Amino acid sequence: MKKNIITILVTTLLVTASCTNMEEELYDKVQDDDFGTTPKEVEALVGGAYSSLRGFSDEISNSFPTCEYVFFLNEVASDEATIPTRGQDWYDGGRYQQTQRHTWDAENGMILSAWRYCYTGISKVNSIIYQIDQSGLSEDDKKPIYAELKAIRAYYYYRLLDMFGNVPIITDFKNQELPANSTRKEVYDFVESELLNALPYLRSEIVYSKFTKNVAYTLLARLYLNSEAFVGIARWQDCIAMCQQVSGYSINPDFFANFATENQGSNELIFAIPYDSDAGTVGNYLSSMTYHYLHQFTVSVTGDYPWCGNGICAQPGAYSKFLDTDKRKASMLEGEQINLATGSVLIMDSGEPLIYTEAIEDFTNAKQNEGVRLSKYEVKEGEKWERDHDWVVMRYAEVLMMQAECYVRMGSPELARPFLDQIAQRAGTETPDVIDLDYINDELLREFAFEGRRRTDNIRFGTFFEPWWEKESTPKYRGIFPIPQSELDKNKNLKQNPEY
Amino acid sequence: MNTKNINYKLPKLASFKALVLIGLLLISIVSARAQDKKTILGTIFDSDGQPLAGATVMEKGTSNGTTADFDGNYSIEVTNGSTLEISFIGFVTKPIVINNTTASPLNVTLEADMVSLDAVELVAVGYGTMRKSDLTGAISTVNSEELVKGTLSSTEQALQGKVAGLTVVQGTGDPSSGATMRLRGGTSLTASNNPLIVIDGIPGVDINQVQPNDIASVDVLKDASATAIYGSRGANGVIIITTKSKAAGFSVSYSGISGISFASNHLDMLSANQWRSYVRGNETVGAIDYGADTDWQKELERAAYRRSHTLSMSAGGENSGMRSSITYFDNEGIVKTTGLQRLSGNINVHQFTLDKKIRFDVGLFATIDKWHPLDYRIFERAFNLNPTIPVYDENGNFTEVGGTLYENPVEILTHRTTDDKRNRLLGYFKTEFNFTPALKGVVNLSLENNAHTGNTYKPSTAVLEGRTEGGYAQKVYDEYTNMQLEAYLSYTKEFGKHMLNAMGGYSYLENTYEGFGAQRSGFETDLFEYNNLGAGQDYRLGDVYSYKGKSNLVSFYARANYSYDSRYMVTATVREDGSSRFGDNNKWGFFPSASVAWNIANEEFMDGTNNWLNQLKLRGGYGVTGNQDGIGEYKSLSILGVGQDSYYDPATDSWKLAYSPTQNPNPDLKWESTEQFNVGLDFGLFGRITGSLEWYSKTTKDLLYTYQVPQPPYLVGTMLANVGELSNKGIELTLNANIINNDKFKWDANLNLSSNEQKIEKLSNQVYETDVIYSGSLHGLSGMSNQFSQIIKEGYPVGTFWGYESSGLDENGAFILSEEKTDIGDIQPSLNVGIGMNFTYDSFDFSFSGYGMFGQDVLNATNMMLYDPNRLPAYNVPDDFLDSGITSDPTYSSYWVEDASFFRLQNVTFGYTVPMDKVFSKLRLYLMGENLAVFTGYNGVDPEVDMTGLADPGLDRFNNYPRPTTVSFGLNITLKN
What we know:
The complex is a heterodimer. Chain A is mainly α. Chain A is 40% helix and 6% strand. In chain A, helix 6 runs antiparallel to helix 7 (184-198). Chain B is mainly beta. Chain B contains nine helices and 49 strands. The model of chain B is unreliable at 1-35 (pLDDT under 50). At the A-B interface, helix 1, strand 1, helix 2, helix 5 and helix 17 of A face helix 7, strand 25, strand 26, strand 30 and strand 31 of B. Strand 1 (30-31) of chain A pairs antiparallel with strand 30 of chain B.
């Protein structure tokens, strides 16, 4: 017995002596230094840069490019969409009312959402570049990977340039100093040089959903098209030159094929963010943000369609821009909504029929049925909350329209006609005898309604600063958003945009 | 809190007990004369029916006496007409006159003496016990008979209202929802703030491992000088639970309780007829009368049955003892399908060997819980639905009326299957070596395992989710295991008036957690429910997952306490903790404490007051403790994770997984450290009243919080870091009074009061600057997306409501609001009260207890959303809305922040003990009412709202599971040989 006790004691002491190791043992995660050594691992890292484009949702913001709130911010600030307050619904602290009226302040959560979409993506790309630095790849192998990553990063900086202007440029993942603003011109130059430097190493062929040469050309064309608005330097000719580099795409005869659930086959798409709910992608639920609460019964006899929140709709005036013969008019849903089970018009809680109308009588207390709805993307019975269609970022129609606009702006409207004809022909309309900027402006709305880019067009055409529905005139400084207050609070080196 | 019943504690120190026995034997001198003598036999019990080994039996005025043996038996020869005095330390001496009619055996029951008990009562202090009279720290003790009784669903509830400074809140009436505890205000923004639970010496275990019926005593260590011995886990206090064990005799007991409960309150919504008359009277357009008369709240409820049975057995002799028990309870919830069923068993055994030089203790606790988790969305739906809608349509199917938040709650409640199960296991093997009477060594090996399984099935007919998913099945499993080794040496020696106790030890804890889950949807049939996930044909990335992690904690600790002449005491402790969770730059934390006490009543100059002032002790202490719960594993590292982050690969037309960094690494991460001062005064008056008064002040530094960091440069927007500072100050008063104590009638009362004031001192340091943190999210309430009701801000307590001040309604029924948002209340109570009284008259007993919280505010978000002029006719409203005159849309303001002060009559019991000596040593029947009344001015369903956590403390927002009122009948039987 005594022997046993001694054994226990000795064992105890031995165990004691050996049990002071405090390293963390990892099981379901890897430390960054341990990853990125094999080609497969490198591929999995670069994949993260693309997945970042879908945005994210965390405790601070919903930062989805497809709806909440990067898309909402840009759309509501433009002349094609609005989010009216319906009773108590969609008030949310007044963030949509502010945006519609161009009276946003730096505390508007949608602005923070957009800022964080870009910088989270940028930091992620920077961290992947750091991982590639550490990897055992040869310098030659690294070059195309760096080019692709930096081009994606340039896309984020392009969006910052467009929305915020004077933003910090950070490229080093390990540098955690609090950065200061660069000027809008510096950001502009950075985007241009990054894309130009990446171009030689980017892939020339069409690779769906990847950052290829064609994508870089299109983005550069966008940069030059808006150059005057961004930094006061008109570069219409440069824009045309870049458009001319884009090759291998064509206008899809079926306009809505670009927005079908299986839209990845359309040869018009230059750059899209792929979604597949089975692959766990999140954030792609715009349809549920626009339709009425009862809309499910217009899609399915049994109501087999996700819940809809009755929010964003077209700004009054946008729907009337379409001719009845214009096929693109179906981008907006108007009129009586039929219950498939009964064949009669759906009745709302108020007892009134559900008829989507263009007019919105009272912006701050709109009726449930007011406002025509965003219906560009396909809607299918049995869909899940997370939709499967890919999110269109750039398509060939834009390359045509950019050239047309540049020719009109350079005083040669007739050179624009062949491009405009292609667009009109598909839509079932005709290019007018006189081509002017007003026509271009309206045609851009009709062609690209609810593709998240109208605010930039409004600014370029100057209409942004003029009064429109539920908005007075807008001072020039509001052509960019304020830097979010919460970021200024945390980083004293950061300065607010002028006049905010 | 310190009353009777020391017998549970004595076996813990068997050597001490042996000493007492020997001492008493020496003291008692047997002298008897042989004339007119009579031999009296019998057994001496305490009021619980446990034998009192070592009790003294003396013939008054003589030196004739004896001592009860290990089983409490005695035998004495006495003269007729003399008086026997039966006494024992800590008990009131009982005189019995012996005459010809005196029966033998003469069994005697002694009542505990509240005041003198302190001298010998042992209090668990962590890694050992101390005499209560020697304590220098703030420790409250609750004995088994003082615990809350009734149809409890969690062990925490047994302490509700019993300890000054300890707040126990069960946020809802759902039996499976568990309760949270908070001592002296809580110290963390991130961690749970639950005190560290120590069961039979094993720290960090789940309190529900032990059932209330198995608890002998609970020692609550409140100040830092008492808890510093638990180092980085001691900041929120320590609750040491000692379970019942057994040294001598044999007994079997049963206790059972069976009752029925019903909802104690509802919100008064318009009935169908009220709705109709409103609609007619106002000629409301679009009102649809569906013809029925449905009270949607009541449709969700039932009369719920609660039953509980406990069977326990104990046996033991001089060298060994065992106790085991089995408890089964089935507490149905008043909302249909809810409830908690628990089966629990435990056994502990001890054995001495080698002349009591070595003692082995083996203990095993096991519980199985089963419940059906509730979809809390039903409560909001029940308030929304038009009361004229029938639950079922003419075909017997659930009525469906389209519209947002308009789903039939009865359908949600009954149309899906949720089955959850939790298994808990705790086992230990403890060896005590008594090397010499002074030197003792203890080695304790323990293992705790806690495993949870969750199953869900939403059939393809279920409106919420199930239908769009085509049937949805899910199974999840998670478990954790704590393996612990504790080894320490202790040395106790008295030299004349000096008493020294010193100990030092080492402990090693390894925590492993792991889990997996799987889900599928797209089922062709609903027949499988969650039992055949493979039959679901819709597979998505993220449908299966698993995880595993591990952490360890290494500690060295020591304590010394010295007392001189039972007048002056000093205690000092140190602990050093190293944790794998801490960042590379802060691997070891150091936690010291020191405290002193002065037993004024033992001073000579106090002799004159001894007749009324029996006890007076002044204590003071300071210590540093930590909290490392908020860190979690791997938070200091730069880690790549793989999860929902997939990307499309056009080359293979497939989706692949991306690996990305998931967090900002923080190599400086460490524990939160809390410094605490405590001053206490213990007193005893007139031999009938005891009490203590405590004052404390604590400051928590290096507050862990997931701070928002600037982007750029940081990768993600938040980062766990040690930044802020939080303070709590308060006072506590505990009073126990033995108001009347005679043979027939007894009246005991106890009262505890506590008051705490909390303040955020700092939220920034050189690196992180935070002006304000928004909390109390209103997200999910219509029109309140991304709105917050509370702030965390320097100078304010946690849970401060920040919004517009409302001075009522203007003539149009619109809210009159202040220009600026301001402080409009907070969730911190200014006073907590616990009160109890026990009356015994002959064989009858009557007792009641209650608790209350005063001064705290609650945001009645339920009413805020229901008092909405847009709701009628489609959505229902409360009766009072029609008279309220409100015409504005729901707006968050002080209008809806209500004073939620309340006092709850927790328990009322009326019992009868059947007098019998033979077969049963005890048989008691009782009737009990729980939650019979709540006194409050609060307008919601119940003022007691969950106050813990940061997400939504003090928010009443459609999570209104009503608390039950329960009436039950109970029976306790004890059988002994």
